[in-house]
Write a structure and sequence with these properties.
Elements: E1 2-4, H1 6-20, E2 24-28, H2 44-48, E3 54-56, H3 61-73, E4 77-84, H4 85-88, H5 92-98, H6 101-104, E5 114-119, H7 132-136, E6 142-144, H8 149-161, E7 166-171, H9 172-175, E8 180-182, E9 195-198, E10 203-207, H10 210-223, E11 229-233, E12 236-238, H11 242-252, E13 255-258, H12 268-278, E14 288-290, H13 301-307, H14 311-322
Parallel strand pairs: 2-3, 2-4, 4-5, 5-7, 6-7, 10-11, 10-13, 13-14
Antiparallel strand pairs: 1-8, 6-12, 9-11
Length: about 350
């Protein structure tokens, strides 16, 4: 094993897949000598650029997406980069129309491709919007969001091998964040399988991306109050791992759903609905969502800090689920207030 950041783990996974399968190629803006945005393709151009398997594309997200969908339907496995989540909205037309091509053609055509995109409040100060919920709404699309380097490598490899379109969301605060021991041998983390990052008995905190580490911090804080929180990392947001989610909630009786996308129309609503429909009798309190308010992401640092859920917002969400929250109106946290 070697200690790696998330971006290093993802690049290693990409390199291993390029070596394994000659049908794979990569395409995107600045993925050539520049190494990709935030060095997300670092070193791959030097190894594969001359072979034509690394395509440094012009600035046209629609064209990149269309080329990769066509190539995927013709037997290739493209991995393409649209830099930031807000730019991924330019690809929505094709994802909405063509993601279900295998269903529509009874498997005659498939679209095995991966779209990588970055998002999140980070030191890079820009492009923070989290639009993953838009893609969750598209039938046939798998939506993945790793929270650790080890998971990131296994998930990107599984995404490339999948026969369906996969949108791979990478949080910019995690890409160059803490390092973790990552196996250098071949392994995959199955898509559609959540991971219990911390066991607990009193409440289930269901999170994704950066919110997983914040949920773990909240769980540590709650432990000092005698509350044992279980933290479930979705890893794949669509399709959901219903078995793991429901087993956790049936054990604890309470659920708090946390994400960085806006609360209104966010994927957390789907998780909450699943729990309400299939585990209602196990609940001893309301399902609580902790997410940003329905406002544009602020650029001001103090407002940005108040906008995105932190450890304290998650703790307060747990208290609401437990029925021990402070009276309404106290505090200034914006997160979750639509």
């Amino acid at each position: 094993m070697a200690r790696m950041t998330m971006v290093e783990a993802i690049v290693l996974g990409l390199r291993e897949e390029l070596e394994r399968d000659p049908s794979i190629f990569m395409m995107g803006q600045d993925i050539g000598p520049m190494g990709g945005p935030l060095q997300s393709f670092k070193g791959l151009w030097e190894s594969y650029g001359a072979s034509g398997r690394m395509i440094d594309a012009p600035i046209s997200e629609e064209a990149i997406t269309a080329v990769c969908f066509g190539a995927a339907m013709s037997g290739r496995r493209p991995v393409f980069e649209l830099m930031f989540s807000e730019f991924s909205t330019l690809a929505m037309g094709l994802f909405a129309a063509e993601a279900g091509i295998a269903f529509k053609t009874d498997g005659v055509l498939k679209a095995p491709l991966v779209m990588r995109t970055k998002f999140g409040i980070s030191p890079h100060r820009g492009h923070p919007e989290d639009f993953h919920s838009l893609f969750v709404h598209c039938p046939g699309v798998k939506v993945v969001m790793p929270s650790t380097p080890r998971d990131a490598k296994g998930l990107i490899k599984a995404a490339i091998r999948d026969d369906n379109p996969v949108v791979f969301f990478e949080h910019m605060s995690l890409l160059h964040g803490r390092k973790e021991e990552v196996p250098e041998e071949d392994y995959v983390v199955p898509l559609g399988k959540a991971d219990v990052k911390r066991e607990g008995r009193d409440v289930s905190i269901i999170a994704s991306g950066l919110m997983v580490s914040r949920a773990l911090k909240a769980a540590e804080s709650l432990a000092h109050e005698g509350v044992q929180a279980e933290v479930v990392d979705l890893r794949t947001i669509s399709p959901l791992d219903e078995d793991t989610l429901l087993a956790s909630v049936r054990k604890t009786g309470r659920a708090v759903v946390v994400h960085e996308a806006w609360k209104v129309g966010g994927s957390g609503g789907e998780v909450a609905a699943l729990i309400a429909e299939q585990a209602f009798l196990a609940l001893t309190g309301p399902v609580v969502r902790v997410a940003p308010a329905h406002l544009p992401v602020p650029f001001s640092l103090p407002l940005e800090k108040a906008f995105i859920p932190d450890e304290h917002a998650i703790v307060e969400g747990v208290r609401r689920a437990l029925g021990t929250a402070a009276p309404a109106g106290e505090g200034t946290q914006l997160a979750g207030r639509a």
